[in-house]
């Protein structure tokens, strides 16, 4: 079998993820995005969400660190800061990459593949290397077993690397006037389809799933306005009813210049119940776009841009997913939780701290 059609990755030496009494909870943190001197409130928010929600799995969905790290040690410290909350609590976690994860690479030297090796060295990380021939780092499928082991996989997660920035040119033409973010490549779409089919063949059923990517799809914007050409309040009001949209949109979506066809593939396969991203920090909305949830997780990191003025930190938060393997779709609910829910200081300033101790230094 080709690498594109390989079986879903299994975290070596790790206890298989399993529903407990038919339930499973996932927390998504997005854009923690800081250097080694992280804002203390980012850690506080992560810790309070973990202690309150008691998730079975955490997804760090890209832009986990950013620029400003002057050497490799600083990069390792920045990475370590955002995984310590899960490691201290023994909570399994996985990550994807965003457009900022390699911002410190010119100074610190670590690229995404090398960072992935470091992340995978932590006891509670469930990442695996990307399949050979698939663009990006950390593309993987992770399955969650049903409470009744005889039923096999009850749910799956697809993690895709949505890249960083568009190439300077394609076919001799630049992208002036177009969005210059990256996009999911066709070989990644093919990998998803083949892996989805492999899961269906193995378990003799389509396995419901969630997909996590950092950069949103064009379909997010289409859903918000209920169309392509007309973008105004009236169109959005109609879209809210049609697509059951909740949450806020405070900035334009920032997809890449190319529509990857990923959403069409998802419709064709019929297993992915929702696609969730980050990237646009002050968007928190979620809607049902022709049977597939499209949603944001807001922004967890207090060191990044937020809303303007005194409201800068109002939307710092995380997204929670509740699963139940006794239901057809398994995904029962998704909701946002915010720093304000936990009484965290929302002052519009920066509150950096010294790096948390690296493994072996504690």
Summarize the structure.
The protein has 362 residues and is α/β, with parallel strands linked by helices. It has one domain: Purple Acid Phosphatase, chain A, domain 2 (4-Layer Sandwich). Helices cover 25% and strands 19% of the residues.
Q: Mean of residue pLDDT?
A: 95
CATH class descriptor:
Alpha Beta
Count of domains: 1
Low-confidence stretches are 1-10
What is the H level of CATH, i.e. the homologous superfamily? Metallo-dependent phosphatases
Strand content: 15-25%
What is the first-to-last residue Cα distance?
Answer: 45 Å
Helix content: 10-25%
Shape: globular
List the helices and strands in order.
EHEHEHHEEEEHEHHHEEEEE
Q: Architecture, according to CATH?
A: 4-Layer Sandwich
Structural class: alpha/beta
> How many helical elements?
8
Strands across the major sheet, in which order? 4-5-8-9-11-10
Radius of gyration: 19 Å
Sheet with the most strands, sense and barrel status: 6 strands, mixed
- Number of separate strands: 13
The CATH topology corresponds to Purple Acid Phosphatase, chain A, domain 2
Describe this structure as you would to a colleague.
The structure is a single chain. The protein is of the alpha/beta class. The protein has a single domain (3-342), classed as Metallo-dependent phosphatases (Purple Acid Phosphatase, chain A, domain 2). It contains eight helices and 13 strands. Strands 4-5-8-9-11-10 form a six-stranded mixed sheet. The protein has a five-stranded mixed sheet with strand order 3-2-1-12-13, with helices on one face. Helix 1 packs parallel to helix 2 (72-89) and helix 5 (186-203) runs parallel beside helix 8. The radius of gyration is 19 Å and the shape is globular. Mean pLDDT is 95; it is low at 1-10. Pfam families: Metallophos (PF00149). InterPro entries: Calcineurin-like_PHP, Metallo-depent_PP-like. This is Phosphoesterase. GO terms for molecular function: hydrolase activity, acting on ester bonds.
